[in-house]
Amino acid sequence: MVTTRLAESRDHDDAVAVWRAANIARGRPPEAARVDRVRAKLVEPDAVVIVAVASGRVRGMLLAEPGRDGDGQGPKVAGLCHISMVFVHPGRQGNGIGRLLLERLRAHVTAQGGTRLQVWTGSGNDRARRLYRRAGFAPSGRVAFLSGRPIEQFVLEL
């Protein structure tokens, strides 16, 4: 059985380990500086970190933060929550953990008075695109480039 909950500080190392393992599995092993940036993001005051736990071990993680105007560079936008990352341990992918993480975030954001979720994902990341569509997200039509790769925005009105 998998449960989800808001992460506690003791979960952060395990959340980073899941993120790291998933990136290694997709052929993108993160450099030490990137690992440090992710660790720093998890402890930011506005960060919402959710973990999925099975058999006492963190198997999935989600990081969200307040949405900002100007593609993340401007002031916070009231009611907007930006999903920065959703990762599931490679050995547990395809078992609904990503959906559970998104459901927990949706409930949390709604309870806080949030009105919209947004996420950017690689245009070629079919697994993530399916996950967001199944969770009720729709493409906004916005496409950008990150590290030379096209990314696509998905949104969900709450």
TrEMBL record:
Checking InterPro entries in the record gives: Acyl_CoA_acyltransferase, Bact_Acetyltransf, GNAT_dom
Judged by the first EC level, this protein's enzyme class is: transferase
Keywords, comma-separated and alphabetical:
Acyltransferase, Transferase
Is Acyltransferase there in the keyword field? yes
Instruction: Extract one GO molecular function annotation from the record.
Output: acyltransferase activity
Query: Is Transferase among the key words of this record?
Result: yes
Q: Which Gene3D superfamilies does the record cross-reference, listed alphabetically? A: 3.40.630.30
Q: State the protein's name.
A: GNAT family N-acetyltransferase
Q: Which species expresses this protein natively?
A: Actinoallomurus acaciae
